[in-house]
Structure to design on (265 residues):
């Protein structure tokens, strides 16, 4: 993904997964704090990377779809690869053998080998943005269709995904305090967002202030991070996202009287 070094991606330090695409972070108080022990805190921003936009979702690579269930003591006997790759492999995609092991998947390392984008002409950057957005839309659409045919499970209490007719028995959930890291997963049917997380971010519009503030957060748009990044680079955004973007919406409460009620900014 050649676009993300061109724009400054900001995200909160290790205790919060929220990211923001822009030259400086917003002031919206949505930080959870360490282990969700705090609420409504202002974020502390540092520079982000590719994995903050395209969130890696891994699953166990099975020898074949209907093999026996992976038990807890067998969890290290199976490679962990991207869940989308595992789904496509089980659906019959011709995936090279070297791409079916854990050591071959490192998005951050791969992105460092990409050519610099700072010297791209605006039209070249816009073309790359459009291709990236189209590829992301195609990926999500394809995964959605495959999920209608091939069984994929997701844990109800955490983000663990398993591609296969039944979940594994590796006790890695930890949703219950008394179980710690030894909790068993509670499996349910997965959706496309579980395999390709949209990573929703706040989006600044032309009518918004230079830095988004907490008091007006109800007026701001929220869109997938890939869409926000590509649109800032010149991509044409599909109309189906207009409602999420709130392009024509107000940037704050209006300064007028409505049915006898005075609203002030």
């Amino acid at each position: 993904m050649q676009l993300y070094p061109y724009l400054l991606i900001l995200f909160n330090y290790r205790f919060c997964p929220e990211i923001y695409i822009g030259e400086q972070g917003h002031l919206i108080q949505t930080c959870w704090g360490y282990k969700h022990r705090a609420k409504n805190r202002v974020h502390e921003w540092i520079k982000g990377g590719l994995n903050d936009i395209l969130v890696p979702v891994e699953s166990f690579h099975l020898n074949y779809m209907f093999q026996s269930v992976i038990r807890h003591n067998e969890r290290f006997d199976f490679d962990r690869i991207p869940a989308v790759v595992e789904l496509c492999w089980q659906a019959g995609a011709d995936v090279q053998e070297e791409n079916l092991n854990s050591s071959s998947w490192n998005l951050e390392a791969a992105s460092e080998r990409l050519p610099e984008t700072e010297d791209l002409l605006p039209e070249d950057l816009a073309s790359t943005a459009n291709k990236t957005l189209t590829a992301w839309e195609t990926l999500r659409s394809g995964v959605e269709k495959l999920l209608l045919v091939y069984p994929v499970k997701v844990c109800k209490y955490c983000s663990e995904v398993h591609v296969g007719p039944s979940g594994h028995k590796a006790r890695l959930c930890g949703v219950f305090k008394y179980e710690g890291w030894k909790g068993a997963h509670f499996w349910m049917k997965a959706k496309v967002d579980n395999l390709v997380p949209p990573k929703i971010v706040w989006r600044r519009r032309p009518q918004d202030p230079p830095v988004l503030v907490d008091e007006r957060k109800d007026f701001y748009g929220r869109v997938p991070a890939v869409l926000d990044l590509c649109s800032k680079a010149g991509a044409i955004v599909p109309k189906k996202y207009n409602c999420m973007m709130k392009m024509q919406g107000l940037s704050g409460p209006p300064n007028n009287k409505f049915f006898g009620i005075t609203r002030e900014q």
